[in-house]
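User: Please fill in residues for this 83-position structure.
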């Protein structure tokens, strides 16, 4: 699983460049679903978690909108190799 990075500067600290590392979401999902040690710890359904003030909390990958989009997608080819 390859990672990418890019350097950027914040407006309030232009002389302190920051490095941002990221990976492809689908590659990460494929990797995680292939790890047998994680099977009993994985959530397979959409979860919406809110704090006491009613704000949505994104604490796990299944709490985000991308998870919902993938689950309701008509494109089954994007999901066929996950399991």
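Assistant: Residues filled in for all 83 positions:
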């Amino acid at each position: 699983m390859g990672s990418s990075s890019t350097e950027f500067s914040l407006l309030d600290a232009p002389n302190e460049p920051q490095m941002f590392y990221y990976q492809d979401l689908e590659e990460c999902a494929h990797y995680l679903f292939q790890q047998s040690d994680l099977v009993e710890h994985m959530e397979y359904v959409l979860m919406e978690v809110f704090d006491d003030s009613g704000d949505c909390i994104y604490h796990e990958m299944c709490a985000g909108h991308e998870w919902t989009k993938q689950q309701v997608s008509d494109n089954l080819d994007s999901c066929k190799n996950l399991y």
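For context: Helices lie at 25-33, 65-71.
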